[in-house]
Amino acid sequence: MKAKKTKLSYKLGLPEAIAMKIYKTSQTRGAEKDTVYQNRVKRCNTVLIPISSWNSNFLQPEGGFEKGYIVLASPEDYFSDNPPEPHPDLPNDLELGRNLLVLYETRYHWNNYPPSQYDWSPATSRTPPLGGQYIARVPDTTRSDDFQIRHGYTGKKTGGQGAGIRVYEYASSQEIEATKYQLSFLAWRTEGIMDMARQEGISNNS
User: Fold this and answer.
1) What is the pTM (predicted TM-score) of this model?
2) Per residue in 126-145, is it b (16+ CB within 10 Å) or e — as a string?
């Protein structure tokens, strides 16, 4: 009987705690619930790009982003002097509801550019079409008649909290996997790693 081949893995033989730390490097961190960003998701997820960056000759990775991107514009960036007409300088390669969303983050924007006035809906998809035209993450205030406003990408129906990841968090699946192996190599070069592995009863660390 032929011996069963061991599947190659970056965590093969590593102590469980070290392997888990390496795995976590493939995920995003630090996004709060009241923001539009996803937390603890893969770094190859949909990327959120501020329109200010897009307007500055933004360069995408070769081959593009694996799961696409969404450009975010504030109401003042999106609208012309006569809402709901878009600003005349809006890039031609951006289309509201396809690869562009308006992001509401302040009470001023919400009150002065109310999406209900334009018959807009909160976005629901991270791939085109986006299912809506805007996202809202407006904090509460001390006024008794104000309340927190969270529209778009808030629960299971939209695949969890957040629309996507920060652009600087992005890495392709190939880059993520290569990084795991590189970190695994460095872990095995660390003093004391063999003793940790033996303490866990791992036998293939000779």
Assistant:
1) 0.89
2) beeebebbbbbbbeeeeeee
